Amino acid sequence: MEHSKQDIRDWFYVMHLMTSIKQVLSAKEVQYQLGKKHYSPVWLMMMKLRSIMGIREGEYKLRDTIEVDQAFFPTRTEKDYWYRQKSGVGSQQQTKVLVIVESKPVENVIIAYGNNIENFSNGKIRDFVKKAKHESIKKVVHYLKMIVVDDLKSETADEIMLKYVDPNAFVVTDGSTSFVNFKKHFTSVY
């Protein structure tokens, strides 16, 4: 925001929009919301914020109980529509993603969240406890990281896990060959 010609209120409004709306937010929509004539300053503001969010994302390490798995997301190019591609795990139409999730027991979240008197007074904790008991929820997702990878080799998974996960974490996997070296790097692996 330093040396920016944009109003500080606009910066905070854009931050609010980017962090509170779950759908994809376009710069055109933000331009309309702010009532600005020009597109490029709004686009630049959003790109700066996304850049900072990405840098911050890489700084923290996941702790406590970590669940790791691989996922495959369909991706297509224009040529995929004309030529039959191989299907399944090795398909050219699927992007490989390593999914790392930090989960916490519900009790820990309730205690941490309950220390804030404001949250308790407006009934959020009571609603959460009621839902957790009704649906027998044992744990909740705290943070997650999804990293696109070129391959699912164990060396690739090791490198990513060492970068993003605390060595004292309890790691839970499905026993895939991609995760065989985790016992060397982390205190507990299941």
Primary descriptors:
single chain, 190 residues, alpha/beta, 2 domains, 20% strand, globular
Outline the structure in words.
The protein is α/β, with parallel strands linked by helices and 190 residues long. The protein has helices at 8-20, 27-34, 40-59, 106-114, 117-121, 124-134, 154-164, 182-185; strands at residues 65-74, 94-105, 139-149, 170-172, 188-189. Strands 3-2-1-4-5 form a five-stranded mixed beta sheet. α8 links the parallel β4 (170-172) and β5 (188-189).
Fold blueprint:
Blueprint: H1 8-20, H2 27-34, H3 40-59, E1 65-74, E2 94-105, H4 106-114, H5 117-121, H6 124-134, E3 139-149, H7 154-164, E4 170-172, H8 182-185, E5 188-189
Parallel strand pairs: 1-4, 4-5
Antiparallel strand pairs: 1-2, 2-3
Helix pairs in contact: 4-6
